[in-house]
Amino acid sequence: MQISGIKSQKPEPDLTEFKPQFYAWSVLAVATLTALGIGLGDLITPIDQAMIYLTGVVFIAAKFGRGPSFLYSFLSVSCFNFFFIPPIYTFNVYDQSYWLTFAVMLITSVVITNQASRLRLQAIFSLKRERDTQTLYALTKALASSSSRKDISKAAVKHITEMLDVDVAIWLPTNDIQLQSIVGSLPKESVVKETSVLQWCFDNGQIAGRHTTTMPSAAGLYFPMSATSGILGVMGVMTTNSEREFSEAEIASLETCANLLASALERTNIADVAEQSKVEAESEKLRTMLLSSVSHDLRTPLASITGASSTIVADIDQLSHETIRDLGRSINKEAERLSHLVTNLLEATRLESGIVQLNMQPYFIEELVGSALERLGSVLSKHTVFPESDEGLPLVLADGVLIEQVLINLLENAAHYTPAGSKIIVSAVRKGPIVLVSVADNGPGIPIGNEEKIFDKFYSIGQRDVQKGTGLGLAICAGIIKAHQGQIWAENRLQGGTCFYFTLPVSDEIAQGMKNVANG
Amino acid sequence: MSQTADTSVLVIEDEPEIRKFLKTVLVGHHFKPSFAENAKEGIKLINLHVPEIIILDLGLPDMDGLEVIKNVRQWAHIPIIVLSARGREQDKVTALELGADDYLTKPFGAGELLARLKVMQRHMRNPVNSRSPIFVNGDISIDFDKRKVCVGGNDVDLTPTEYKLLFALAKQVGRVVTYQQLLREVWGKNAEENNHYLRIYTQHLRRKLADDPMMPKYIVTEAGIGYRLKEIA
Hints:
The structure holds two protein chains of two kinds.
Chain A: H1 4-8, H2 20-40, H3 46-64, H4 66-84, H5 98-145, H6 149-164, E1 166-174, E2 178-183, H7 191-204, E3 208-209, E4 221-227, E5 230-239, H8 248-315, H9 321-353, E6 360-363, H10 365-376, E7 384-389, E8 396-399, H11 400-417, E9 423-431, E10 434-441, H12 472-483, E11 488-492, E12 498-505, H13 508-519
Parallel strand pairs in A: 7-9
Antiparallel strand pairs in A: 1-2, 1-5, 3-4, 4-5, 6-8, 9-10, 10-12, 11-12
Helix pairs in contact in A: 2-3, 2-4, 3-4, 3-5, 4-5, 5-6, 5-8, 6-8, 8-9, 9-12, 10-11, 11-12
Chain B: E1 7-12, H1 16-28, E2 31-36, H2 39-49, E3 53-57, H3 65-73, E4 80-85, H4 89-98, E5 102-106, H5 110-125, E6 134-137, E7 140-143, E8 148-151, E9 154-156, H6 160-171, E10 176-178, H7 179-187, H8 195-208, E11 219-222, E12 226-229
Parallel strand pairs in B: 1-2, 1-3, 3-4, 4-5
Antiparallel strand pairs in B: 6-7, 7-8, 8-9, 10-12, 11-12
Helix pairs in contact in B: 2-3, 3-4, 6-7, 6-8
């Protein structure tokens, strides 16, 4: 199918329209054929000349339609009488039998005109129909391949503009009430009037505006986009030239376009609903997983605490000081674990619900590494931490408490996955407009292909062991870094182990401020 | 003040289990605790007995703990340590700005609590205006009269701003000082928005004191709250 061909085709002349130049062609044709007859002189009989005139009517009728053809018929009979029938140069006729010739000529001309112009009309209409069909086909195809409401609307506008050379605008309702322009806009003349036509069209599901019975004085013509689920929006058409009027056929094909558009939009609505319920089902599943995962993670330390503390309560007299101290230590350790878990859970809930308000302040990232290490204290006591940083790192704008939490989670993660005595390297470097922070360990690394999944909530569910957390920690890191317009990712190190990276943007304003302070 | 006299501590806390825990710790370390379950009772007891230290939970059932601080600060400089949950940094900053002396994030251990109380006791025994002209904390020594700073016996050349910053932290050694308090004290009232000044001068100061910000020996960052000059025994 040659869709691209449509664009180059100019609109065909409309047969019903009055075109002076067509009549001029008729006059010219009669004049030429008359001159030819006179030029040939005695070589032809008057009857031959009548035949020449009749041949001409076929072309005129086929080319220019009924009106010019009638004019041609009348003129040719007149000229035939005037120039070729004795006495010539008068309209008098000596031989009365020529009146019959005139009548036959006229009748034949009329019959030919009728037939030829009907053929011409048919040809024009079928060409038009083919073009419309092609446009509609192209539109259908474009609509089928677009998935968003915006893309669908854009595709429709493009095709309708090509088909009819008009301005097209599309409105879709937001929150089921307010119409909002997706593509195009109202004609400038009278926004108030156009808005009310637009709304009327949407509310009543009927075509309105120009050429219609409802507010015919409006500049635009508005089609409701009606589908089985109701009116989905309004398509407005405005002519670029205010003189121009739409033909019935044009209005019909615009209506078809509006209906095509409606069904395409309905399709995406259905897809949206399906997607929505899928998401809901997914989050329901996640919630269930969270509950089982969290209750497991909460119960484990609680069990140790209950066991150890009840032992002390029941058997304090039989226990040695050493045993009591051991039990106390394990209570303490498990309580810290619980506390960390609860902190992460609360943080996750806060991030999820969107109630986190970032308290952005300038920080040197080294300071936050320092406070994270300070807060972790005993958790890292069995590991050796090597902090490294470039001299003269710029300030970053960050919520210090949250970034500290990211560092705590990453460091603790590293401590969890590596045996006692392992090295953990925390480093911070500047890379152009960002500060890149990394936490590297020499643990077992991440299973290949899971480098992104580990940031999913509850990733560790599948392969948990008691030592590992809920997997919430990394998801929280991802949420916090995202809120800071940074990036976070993990890589396996060539020499073994994992390296987590995150970036924070350097604030230009702050960088400028630093310069001023340094100079002042 | 004699070492043997028990310091009186008023605990304003509505959770009975935490009161019990605090009682055990305080009695075990020679403090003389009294308890209030809510703010009203707390204010009454403060007026009645004038404790030497107040431990105040910010989440009380009858009124905001911040109101207690405002009330007490109208007439007394009794040291106040506030207890607050994590993630409520703004509450802590507000409490400190209103005149609380330090804070503890729940849950906290006995060790942390005792460390804070000891700092308070030392400050009570050694008020700012009667302090000796030589301040010593670990390797750092400051001669307030001569404005001289030494680290490990070597003179450190500080700019006037750096000195003011160190001085502000040293006065409150062991206690957290909020960013705003430091900005006000070093740069004046109108500088509270210029957080980056504070960061940059703290960085300079740390460098001169050979203090690694990633593993600080002296100046500790408390994210979202302030700085603390660690007290080194």
